[in-house]
Amino acid sequence: MKHKFNYMRFYLALLWTLLLLFLTGCWSSKEVEELSLTAGIALDKGKDSTIEKEDEEGGYPKRNLITATYQIVSSQAQSKGNGQQKRYINVSETGDSIHQIVREFSLKRESTMFSPHLKNIVISDSLVRTYSLEQLLEQYLRDNEVRLSCMLLISKGLAKEVLESNKKGEIPAFRLSGIADNRNRTTRILPPVSLAKLEGKMRSGASFLLQNVISINGETKFAGAAVIKGKTKKLMGFLNEQELEGVVWINGKRNGGVVKTFDKESKKLIIYEIKSIKSKIIPHVNGNNISFDVNI
After folding, report:
1. What angle do CA 156, 161, 166 make, to 5 degrees?
2. What is the DSSP string of 206-233?
3. What is the helix, strand, coil percentage profile of the chain, to 5?
4. pLDDT value, residue 173
5. Higher pLDDT residue, 31 or 208?
6. Rounded-to-integer distance, Cα 14 and Cα 23, Å
7. Chain Cα centroid distance, residue 209
8. Residue 146 burial (CB count, 10 A)
9. pLDDT greater than 70 at residue 222
10. Per residue in 104-158, pLDDT tens?
11. Residue 99 C-alpha from the chain's centroid
12. CA pair distance 19, 17, nearest whole angstrom
């Protein structure tokens, strides 16, 4: 006796087989608690920590050129919802290169560094005077885990101090991004320079500006700009806040801020709010003499 082929059962089996193929997409996923979510990175001149000095005798040979501080968002503080507890952990490691330093973290932490949500990289002035931005940032520019939208800042002083805060519940890396968003309210903040934009600036060979940031007792402020020489990609010097404001006016690319002046007759302070800035630069060349007319 011949059995009739059950098409319905065959199609159901085929459907279940296809569903199983798609349901295996999360086999390699990791829980958020198992990752070290990096929000910010600070780069300073190399200085051994206490643990590194103790391990030096039986450790790995290195010259300790750079100290990298990674700001890790604390998942425990967020899950407990305690506003009085620090929401971040700063961990530092010293080495000869960024690539090596990241691998050194693997010897001390059970969770790997996860940087797709990295907000900013802060570099100390002493480090960028010694090494070019190309040397310092090559790893981040090549690493497909780090997003090129990450913002770059220069610190006058220790960069790791910028990633500290005396306010409970605050994440310093997020605070820096928030301050940068205020650029349409003042003429003393530069447009943020991401890793993607930085690569183009370095390839152009022209000198350029990066936002300078200072930190005093856990309080952070954007103060002036760092001047990067196009030929060497190293720090040349700084512009103070007034000089930076002048550069912004000359560039004519800003839609916010204020201007203060005084009335000559009443001696009273007058504040003007800026809605837009337009400028026109006309160069004049007379032999070896070059001059400019700037109309704002």
Report:
1. 130
2. --EEEEEEEEETTEEEEEEEEEEPTTT-
3. 35, 30, 40
4. 96
5. 208
6. 15
7. 15
8. 20
9. yes
10. 888 887 777 888 889 999 999 999 999 999 999 999 998 888 889 999 999 999 9
11. 17
12. 5
Four-residue CA torsion sign, 221, 225, 226, 230: positive
CA-to-CA distance for 280 and 296, rounded, in angstroms?
7
Confirm if 173 and 119 have CB atoms less than 8 A apart: yes
- The average pLDDT across 50-55 equals 55
User: Would you list the domain boundaries of the chain?
Assistant: 31-251, 252-296
DSSP the chain: -PPPP-HHHHHHHHHHHHHHHHGGGGTT---GGGSEEEEEEEEEE----HHHHHTSTTS------EEEEEEEE-HHHHHHT-TTS-SEEEEEEEESSHHHHHHHHTTT-SS-EE-TT--EEEEEHHHHHHS-HHHHHHHHHH-TTS-TT-EEEEESS-GGGGG--SSTT--HHHHHHHHHGGGGG-SSSPPP-BHHHHHHHHHH---EEEEEEEEETTEEEEEEEEEEPTTT-SEEEEE-HHHHHHHHHHHT--S--EEEEE-TTT--EEEEE-S----EEEEEEETTEEEEEEE-
Is pTM, for the whole model, over 0.90? no
